[in-house]
């Protein structure tokens, strides 16, 4: 486990940035989300190895403009049944893109739709989660993902034997993955029952399980993208982890699903 210390340092940098922005609220939350969004766009652009630099500047600039327009002028009004339905449709569009991206003819053209679907949508929903519900609920999402990642890694290291997807991510095992999922569900259950004291707390164990499963799918999705491009990491920003997309792949993939659950369960607004 010689790489454990760099992984811990990298994770702490990332966690402190997210929780710091969430704790200090505005304008820090806006700044943190925008900074992570810009870095994620840069890494996605670098990942695609697009030769036309003007195309990169044009579409990343437009994507940033849409993000800033939304969070500065529309986020405070994005509540109610209409927005909830829009958010669900955005989630469907996100997962539809992820399910189609590896088709032969689509993969070569994924740069632009990926910017607007794979990057923009989850960051918009992440920002909304930080505004529209008590921060503790978003903290629960972070804890589910981080618990899953941590115990999947430790479980795989200690007693992992059966490879989960050797062609995509050779280090992942079924034993480690199932360990992470079980601990993630338990974390969600503990938060719902003992911290939030939610009446229907039992369902949150299932939510934690589903969020962890989608988090693992996000990790595999990012790994497969990198395999196709024959690179190890999306960036070098975080020691032991690579780039922001390497660190946030599970979170990005789980956010649309979690946002839909929050909407359906009608989590109280601030």
What is the compact description of this entry?
The model has no long low-confidence stretch (mean pLDDT 87). The chain has one domain (4-264).
Structure overview:
The chain is mainly α and 270 residues long. It has one domain. 76% of the residues lie in helices and 3% in strands. The chain has a two-stranded antiparallel ribbon with strand order 1-2. A hairpin with a 3-residue loop joins strand 1 and strand 2. The longest helix is centred in the last third of the chain and has 26 residues. The protein is globular.
What features would you highlight for this structure?
mainly alpha; single chain; 270 residues
Q: Strands, helices and their partners?
A:
Elements: H1 4-24, H2 28-48, H3 53-74, H4 80-100, H5 104-107, H6 111-132, H7 135-159, E1 163-165, E2 169-173, H8 174-195, H9 203-228, H10 244-264
Antiparallel strand pairs: 1-2
Helix pairs in contact: 1-2, 2-3, 2-6, 3-6, 4-6, 4-10, 6-10, 7-8, 7-9, 7-10, 8-9, 9-10
What is the CA–CA distance across the termini?
42 Å
Order of strands across the widest beta sheet?
1-2
Low-confidence stretches: none
Helix percentage: over 70%
- Counting helices, strands and paired strands, the structural category is mainly alpha
* Total strands: 2
Task: Characterize the biggest β-sheet.
Answer: 2 strands, antiparallel
The count of domains is 1
* Element-level helix/strand string: HHHHHHHEEHHH
The proportion of residues in beta strands is under 5%
Mean pLDDT metric: 87
Shape: globular
Total DSSP helices: 10
- Supply Rg: 18 Å
Multimeric state: single chain
């Amino acid at each position: 486990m010689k790489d454990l210390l760099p992984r811990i340092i990298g994770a702490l940098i990332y966690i402190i940035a997210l929780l710091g922005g969430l704790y200090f609220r505005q304008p820090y939350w806006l700044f943190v989300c925008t900074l992570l969004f810009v870095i994620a766009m840069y890494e996605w652009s670098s990942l695609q190895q697009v030769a036309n630099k003007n195309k990169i500047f044009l579409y990343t600039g437009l994507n940033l403009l849409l993000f800033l327009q939304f969070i500065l002028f529309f986020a405070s009004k994005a509540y109610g049944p209409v927005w909830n339905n829009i958010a669900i449709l955005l989630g469907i569009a996100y997962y539809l893109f992820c399910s189609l991206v590896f088709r032969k003819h689509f993969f070569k053209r994924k740069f632009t739709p990926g910017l607007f679907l794979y990057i923009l949508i989850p960051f918009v929903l992440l920002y909304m989660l930080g505004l529209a519900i008590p921060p503790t609920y978003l903290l629960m999402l972070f804890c589910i993902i981080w618990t899953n990642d941590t115990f999947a890694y430790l479980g795989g290291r200690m007693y992992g034997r059966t490879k989960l997807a050797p062609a995509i991510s050779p280090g992942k095992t079924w034993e480690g993955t199932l360990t992470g999922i079980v601990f993630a569900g338990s974390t969600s259950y503990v938060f719902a029952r003992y911290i939030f004291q939610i009446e229907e707390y039992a369902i949150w164990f299932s939510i934690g399980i589903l969020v962890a499963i989608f988090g693992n799918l996000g990790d595999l999705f990012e790994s497969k993208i990198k395999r196709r491009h024959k690179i190890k990491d999306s960036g070098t920003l975080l020691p032991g982890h690579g780039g922001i997309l390497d660190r946030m792949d599970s979170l990005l993939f789980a956010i649309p699903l979690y946002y839909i659950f929050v909407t359906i369960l009608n989590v109280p607004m601030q």
